[in-house]
């Protein structure tokens, strides 16, 4: 029986998460994308805490109508700025089972441009 799109993404996610874990020195940058919004968090898996987060549901994005790829780029810049302010310069990128293209790719590239090492 064929897997659904969600099930196959979750299998990929579990395969990635076996290898990637955030520490205090190098936390994990996790992304989630829905049909309308884009979310990103920097997580310390040892203590189980979210250090920095950004999403397209914040007040900055509610007023403007922009394309989803541009939205992901702005969130990448925003989370990189917040991370640098908190002293986080290097992270492990967790694409959460999504393919590395489109919004996920534009997010990662803009975070790199803003000074975050992925």
Notes on the structure:
Strands 3-2-1-4 form a four-stranded mixed β-sheet. It has a single domain, classed as 2-Layer Sandwich (Nucleotidyltransferase, domain 5). The chain is built from four helices and four strands. The protein starts with a helix and ends in a 5-residue tail after the last helix. The protein has 118 residues and is of the alpha+beta class. Helix 3 runs parallel beside helix 4.
Q: What is the succession of H and E elements?
A: HEEEHHEH
For the largest beta-sheet, the strand count, sense and barrel status come to:
4 strands, mixed
CATH topology: Nucleotidyltransferase, domain 5
List unreliable stretches of 5+ residues: none
The percent of residues in helical segments reads 40-55%
* Strand order, sheet with most strands: 3-2-1-4
Number of helices: 4
Overall residue-averaged pLDDT value? 93
> What is the count of β-strands?
4
**Spatial gap, N to C terminus:** 37 Å
- CATH architectural grouping: 2-Layer Sandwich
CATH class: Alpha Beta
Shape: globular
Strand content: 15-25%
The structural class is: alpha+beta
Any idea what the radius of gyration is?
Answer: 14 Å
Q: Return the domain count.
A: 1
